[in-house]
Specification:
about 230 residues; alpha/beta; Metallo-beta-lactamase, Chain A; 7-stranded mixed β-sheet; 5-stranded mixed β-sheet; 7 helices; 16 strands; globular
Length: about 230
């Protein structure tokens, strides 16, 4: 699948049943997440489709340390020299390449099956060094300002990111939007996950992207709040 524009300055890059997001700004390109392993070519193709070159990718911001979000990080950094960011709780996962923490399936038969099929906490990846830890409540001085929101539950070091100029929320795997808005495949801690869902539903934004599934660009805040209230 090709790169797709979401809003001005933001493009989604399919990374093998996972999404990465490319942000264009005057200070260079920023990439949110790195997808599954061996998907780095999708990023370089997307960059060139925008008339840019890989060396213009300055920042790689990882929402959490699961294999489907950091899998191609080492290869992307090797090609671009991008500065890397990840919450301190997950930095050891990225810098060793695994194994990863166990995760229990989210409620429901489908997620119980898919979590066991798709998530292997013993998977090993090429390790990637992290340059800067992401800290809850801070704003990265990247692309006009990106707010960092720590949202554990699915993964202890998971963060969501709110890009101020475009009022777009990158919700990582707090939710997924495959066949409708819902839980991720699993949780390391269900209670923390529910609290994180409520926290994001309390924010205000115009669009929301997920690690898995389609982006919401209309009534995004209202849709997340409605889903969260129904839990």
């Amino acid at each position: 699948m090709a790169i797709k524009r979401i809003i001005d300055g933001v493009h989604v890059v399919p990374m093998g049943n996972a999404n990465a997001y490319l942000i264009e700004a005057e200070d260079g390109l920023a990439l949110i997440d790195a997808g599954f392993p061996d998907k780095e070519a999708a990023v370089f193709t997307a960059i060139r489709a925008l008339g840019r070159t890989p060396d213009q990718l300055k920042h790689l911001i990882l929402t959490h340390g699961h294999p489907d979000h950091i899998g191609s990080a080492a290869a992307i950094v090797r090609e671009t020299g991008a500065r890397t960011y990840l919450h301190e709780a997950d930095i050891p996962l990225a810098e060793t390449g695994g194994p990863f923490r166990p995760m229990a399936p989210a409620p429901g038969m489908l997620r119980r099956v898919l979590c066991r099929v798709l998530y292997d906490h013993n998977e090993r990846l090429a390790p990637v060094a992290i340059d800067e830890p992401l800290v809850d409540g801070t704003t990265l001085p990247i692309a006009g300002g990106i707010d960092v929101i720590h949202v554990p539950g699915h993964c202890a070091g998971q963060v969501a990111l709110l890009w101020r100029p475009g009022r777009m929320l990158f919700a990582a795997d707090v939710f997924m939007n495959v066949m409708g808005l819902g839980d991720p495949l699993g949780f390391e801690n269900l209670a923390d996950g529910r609290a994180s869902q409520a926290r994001l539903a309390g924010l205000s934004f115009d669009a929301v992207g997920f690690g898995h599934g389609g982006v919401i660009t209309r009534d995004a805040t209202a849709r997340l709040r409605k889903w969260a209230r129904a839990r």
